[in-house]
C-alpha cells in the first residue's frame, strides 16, 4: 500500500474513531442524565401522591379512587400502595406500553435502570402505609434517540469538514511526493531533470538531495560526452585538420549510399593540393600546414551548416566533400573554389588546387563515384591556380518522368495500400531475435513489382508523403505482430514529425491494438531527429511509451556526443551506424570509441545495438564491446533461434 493511501487510511480511521467515540460518549452521558432526571421525577411523583393520600384521613376507598385517578391521568408504568404491614392494598400496572420512535435495537442496547419513587403515607401521626410510583421510560428513550441522531449528524458534518481539510493538506503534501517519484522514475529512464524545492521541510531535504544527484549525474554525462568528442577527434579524425580520415570518410560515405532516406542524386567533390612536396620545400612544413588548414576550414563549413554533408582528408594532399542533395554540386564547387582562392592567397599566391566535382544517381556503387570524381580531378590538374572541373550524369528516370507523376504514383500506392514490409532480424548474443526491422516497400505500378524505399522515399519526403507511408508501415507491423506475436520496429522519417497529426494518429493506431501487441512494437528515427525535432521527439515518447511502444534512434554515431539533452529524449535504445562499427575488429581505436559510446549510453539506461554489420570478426568485436544486439547482412545469415 502506498504512503498516501496509508495516510488516508490513518486520517479516515481517526475521523471515524472520533465520530464514533464522540457519539458514544455523548449518548452515554445523555443517558445518565435522563436516567437521573427520570429517577427524580419518580420521587417527586411519589411524594406528591403520598401527600394527597395523607389528606384522606385513612379512608381506603377514597385513597384507592385517588390513586386510580392519578394513574389514569399520569404517564405511569405502575403504582402500588402497601399498608403498614407491607401488604399491597392497591396496585395498578400499565398494560400497553406507549410506542416510541426509538428503534428496538437502540432500546435494547441502552436500557434504562430507573428505580421507582417511594414515599410514606400517614394519617396525622399515624403511618398508614407507603406508595411506590414508577414512570414510563418510553419518553426518555425517544428523547435519547433524537439527541443521539442530532449529535451523530453534527459530528459527521464536522468529520466531513475535517476530511475535506485533510484531503487538501494531503493533496498539497502529495504534490512534492509525486514530483519526487517522477524525478526518480526519470532517473531510472535516463532523464535527469531538476525540480523546484517544496516548502515542506522534510520534502525540501529529499528534493534537494535528488536535485544534487541529478546535477551530478548530468555533469558526469556531459563529462563523458566531452571525453567522447575528444576520443572521436583523436581516433577517427585527421590530427592536423580535424576532418575525418580516409577510412572513416569511406565508412560514412558507404553508410550514406546505403540509406533509404537519402536523395536520388548527390554530389562528390574531390580536392587536391598540387605539388605537396614542392610546397614543403618552398614554404616549409609550417607554411604547408597553413595551406592544408585553409582547405580544411573551407570544407568544414558545409558539414557544420548542412546536416548529412561529409568532409574528410583522404591522404596528405587530397580532400573530399559529399553533398547529399541534387543540383547543388556545381554552385557548391564554385563557391568552394572562390573560398580557396581567397583563403590561400594569404599563404602563397602560387598555391594550386584542383577540384573535381561530379553529380550521380545515389544508387551507383562507391567505386563509380570515386572513378568519376578522379577523372574530373585529373582534368582539373592540368590547369594553373585553383581549377574546377564539373561533370554531371544525365537526369535519372525519376527526374525525366517528372516529379508530379511520381507523386501521383506514390500517393496512389498509399491510398490503395499496395504495400508490404520486409523483415530483417536484430539478434542478441545468443542468436535470439530481439526484434524484426521492417522497411516498407510500395508497388507503384499495380502490375509491377514492389519497389524498395530507396527508390521512392526521397520523392515521398520531398512531397511530404512520408507521414502517410510511416503510418501505413506502423499499421502493417501491428497487424503482423497480432498474427505471430514477434516484436517488430518500423522506421519513422524525421520529416514525419513535422506533420501535426502524425503523433495523434500513431497513438490512435497503437491504442486500437491489444496490450500484448503494443509492447512488441518499436519506432525508430534517424539521429538528426534528436537535434532537429527534439521537442517533437520528446512528445512522441510521452504519447507512445506509456502504451508500451519502444522508441529508438538509428544511424547514430559521433553526433550523439553533440546532443546535449540526450538524457531527456525519452529513448529506449540506440543503433550505432555502420560507419561507426565497420572495421572495428582491425581498429583498436574504433573499438575504444565504440566502447566509450556504450558506456555513455548505458549510463542513460539505453540499450545499444549495431547496424549494418557484414563481417563475423566485426560481430565478435562488437560482442566484446558489450553491445546488446546486432543487425545487418551478417545477422540475417545466422542460424537464428526461434
UniProtKB/TrEMBL annotation:
GO molecular function, one term: cyclic-guanylate-specific phosphodiesterase activity
Full protein name: Diguanylate cyclase/phosphodiesterase
InterPro entries per the UniProt record, alphabetical: Cyclic-di-GMP_PDE-like, EAL_dom, EAL_sf, GGDEF_dom, HAMP_dom, LapD_MoxY_N, LapD_MoxY_peri_C, Nucleotide_cyclase
Gene Ontology biological process terms in this record: signal transduction
A Pfam family that the UniProt record links to this protein: EAL
Lineage: Bacteria, Pseudomonadati, Pseudomonadota, Betaproteobacteria, Burkholderiales
Source organism of this protein record: Roseateles depolymerans
GO CC annotation, single: membrane
Amino acid at each position: 500500500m502506498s504512503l498516501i493511501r496509508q495516510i488516508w487510511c490513518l486520517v479516515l480511521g481517526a475521523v471515524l474513531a472520533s465520530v464514533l467515540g464522540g457519539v458514544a460518549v455523548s449518548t452515554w452521558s445523555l443517558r445518565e442524565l435522563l436516567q437521573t432526571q427520570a429517577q427524580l421525577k419518580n420521587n417527586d411523583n411519589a411524594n406528591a401522591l403520598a401527600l394527597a393520600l395523607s389528606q384522606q384521613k385513612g379512608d381506603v376507598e377514597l385513597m384507592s379512587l385517588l390513586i386510580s385517578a392519578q394513574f389514569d391521568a399520569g404517564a405511569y408504568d405502575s403504582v402500588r400502595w402497601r399498608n403498614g404491614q407491607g401488604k399491597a392494598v392497591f396496585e395498578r400496572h400499565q398494560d400497553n406500553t406507549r410506542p416510541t420512535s426509538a428503534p428496538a435495537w437502540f432500546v435494547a442496547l441502552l436500557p434504562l435502570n430507573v428505580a421507582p419513587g417511594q414515599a410514606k403515607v400517614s394519617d396525622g401521626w399515624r403511618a398508614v402505609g407507603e406508595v411506590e410510583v414508577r414512570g414510563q421510560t418510553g419518553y426518555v428513550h425517544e428523547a435519547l434517540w433524537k439527541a443521539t441522531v442530532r449529535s451523530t449528524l453534527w459530528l459527521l458534518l464536522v468529520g466531513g469538514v475535517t476530511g475535506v481539510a485533510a484531503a487538501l493538506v494531503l493533496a498539497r503534501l502529495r504534490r512534492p511526493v509525486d514530483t519526487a517519484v517522477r524525478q526518480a522514475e526519470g532517473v531510472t529512464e535516463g532523464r535527469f531533470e531538476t525540480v523546484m524545492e517544496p516548502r515542506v521541510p522534510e520534502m525540501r531535504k529529499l528534493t534537494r538531495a535528488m536535485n544534487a544527484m541529478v546535477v551530478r549525474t548530468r555533469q558526469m554525462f556531459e563529462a563523458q560526452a566531452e571525453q567522447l568528442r575528444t576520443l572521436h577527434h583523436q581516433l577517427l579524425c585527421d590530427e592536423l585538420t580535424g576532418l575525418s580520415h580516409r577510412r572513416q570518410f569511406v565508412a560514412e560515405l558507404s553508410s550514406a549510399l546505403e540509406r533509404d532516406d537519402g536523395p536520388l542524386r548527390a554530389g562528390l567533390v574531390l580536392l587536391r593540393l598540387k605539388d605537396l612536396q614542392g610546397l614543403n620545400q618552398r614554404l616549409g612544413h609550417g607554411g604547408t600546414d597553413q595551406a592544408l588548414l585553409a582547405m580544411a576550414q573551407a570544407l568544414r563549413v558545409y558539414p557544420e551548416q548542412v546536416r548529412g554533408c561529409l568532409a574528410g582528408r583522404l591522404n596528405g594532399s587530397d580532400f573530399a566533400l559529399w553533398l547529399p542533395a541534387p543540383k547543388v554540386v556545381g554552385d557548391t564547387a564554385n563557391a568552394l573554389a572562390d573560398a580557396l582562392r581567397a583563403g590561400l592567397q594569404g599563404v602563397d599566391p602560387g598555391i594550386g588546387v584542383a577540384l573535381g566535382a561530379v553529380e550521380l544517381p545515389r544508387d551507383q556503387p562507391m567505386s563509380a563515384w570515386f572513378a568519376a570524381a578522379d577523372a574530373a580531378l585529373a582534368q582539373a590538374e592540368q590547369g594553373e591556380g585553383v581549377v574546377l572541373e564539373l561533370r554531371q550524369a544525365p537526369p535519372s528516370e525519376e527526374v525525366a518522368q517528372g516529379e508530379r507523376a511520381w507523386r501521383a504514383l506514390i500517393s496512389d500506392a498509399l491510398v490503395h495500400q499496395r504495400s508490404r514490409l520486409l523483415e530483417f532480424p536484430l539478434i542478441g548474443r545468443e542468436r535470439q531475435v530481439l526484434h524484426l526491422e521492417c522497411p516498407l516497400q510500395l508497388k507503384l505500378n499495380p502490375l509491377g513489382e514492389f519497389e524498395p524505399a530507396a527508390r521512392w522515399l526521397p520523392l515521398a519526403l520531398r512531397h511530404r508523403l512520408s507521414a502517410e507511408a510511416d503510418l501505413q508501415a506502423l499499421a502493417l507491423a501491428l497487424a503482423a505482430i497480432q498474427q505471430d506475436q514477434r516484436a517488430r520496429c518500423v522506421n519513422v522519417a524525421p520529416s514525419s514529425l513535422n506533420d501535426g497529426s502524425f503523433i495523434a494518429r500513431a497513438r490512435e493506431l497503437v491504442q486500437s491494438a491489444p496490450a500484448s501487441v503494443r509492447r512488441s512494437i518499436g519506432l525508430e528515427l534517424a539521429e538528426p531527429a534528436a537535434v532537429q525535432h527534439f521537442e517533437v521527439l520528446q512528445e512522441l515518447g510521452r504519447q507512445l511509451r506509456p502504451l508500451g511502444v519502444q522508441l529508438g534512434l538509428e544511424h547514430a554515431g559521433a553526433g550523439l556526443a553533440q546532443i546535449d539533452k540526450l538524457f531527456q529524449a525519452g529513448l529506449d535504445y540506440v543503433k550505432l551506424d555502420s560507419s561507426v562499427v565497420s572495421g572495428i575488429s582491425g581498429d583498436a581505436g574504433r573499438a575504444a570509441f565504440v566502447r566509450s559510446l556504450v558506456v555513455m549510453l548505458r549510463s542513460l539506461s539505453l540499450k545499444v545495438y549495431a547496424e549494418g554489420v557484414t563481417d563475423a570478426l566485426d560481430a565478435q568485436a562488437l560482442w566484446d564491446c558489450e553491445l546488446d544486439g546486432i543487425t545487418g547482412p551478417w545477422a540475417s545469415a545466422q542460424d537464428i533461434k526461434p
